[in-house]
Amino acid sequence: MEFQDKVLTCIDCGADFVFTAGEQLFFHDKQFRNEPKRCKDCKSKRVSILATPQAFANGRQSTRVETRATCSQCGKATTVPFRPTQGRPIFCRECFTQRRNMASA
């Protein structure tokens, strides 16, 4: 299959960039279905943002999630550092530590 360089437009900055024949061959070999959407600079920026330990939501930095809940074991009110999944038990720090110690023994 013969590939030719294509000029694409970056969805972030609007600049034109070249999707080379070699890159197209690579995408074809890897069976990627979509052409790249971002230029190399914008892709690098996006990767560096996504690789940072702090989460970003809706384009702004979000803080750690604290959710109020009731411990499934002792019934004590507590906070957990995540959004609970429906149907899964939630434990306060003491009950969580107790269960973890029992599991490792």
Give a concise summary.
31% of the residues lie in helices and 19% in strands. It contains three helices and six strands, in the order ββααββββα. It is elongated.
Q: What does this 3D model show about the protein?
A:
This protein is α+β, with helices and mostly antiparallel strands. The protein has two domains: 6-61, no CATH class; 67-104, no CATH class. Helix content is 31%, strand content 19%. It contains three helices and six strands; from the N terminus they run ββααββββα. It has a two-stranded antiparallel ribbon. Strands 3-4 form a two-stranded antiparallel sheet. It is elongated, with a radius of gyration of 24 Å. The model has no long low-confidence stretch (mean pLDDT 85).
List keywords for this structure.
single chain, 105 residues, alpha+beta, two-stranded antiparallel sheet, two-stranded antiparallel ribbon, 6 strands, 31% helix, 19% strand, elongated
Layout of helices and strands:
Layout: E1 6-9, E2 16-19, H1 21-29, H2 40-51, E3 56-57, E4 60-61, E5 67-70, E6 77-80, H3 93-104
Antiparallel strand pairs: 1-2, 3-4, 5-6
Number of strands: 6
Structural class: alpha+beta
Please give the order of strands in the largest beta sheet. 1-2
State the distance separating the first and last CA atoms: 61 Å
Largest sheet: 2 strands, antiparallel
Mean pLDDT score: 85
The multimeric state of the shown protein is: single chain
Radius of gyration: 24 Å
- Outline: elongated
What fraction strand? Answer: 15-25%
Total number of domains: 2
* Low-pLDDT regions: none
Total helical segments:
3
Helix coverage percent: 25-40%
* Elements, N to C (H/E): EEHHEEEEH
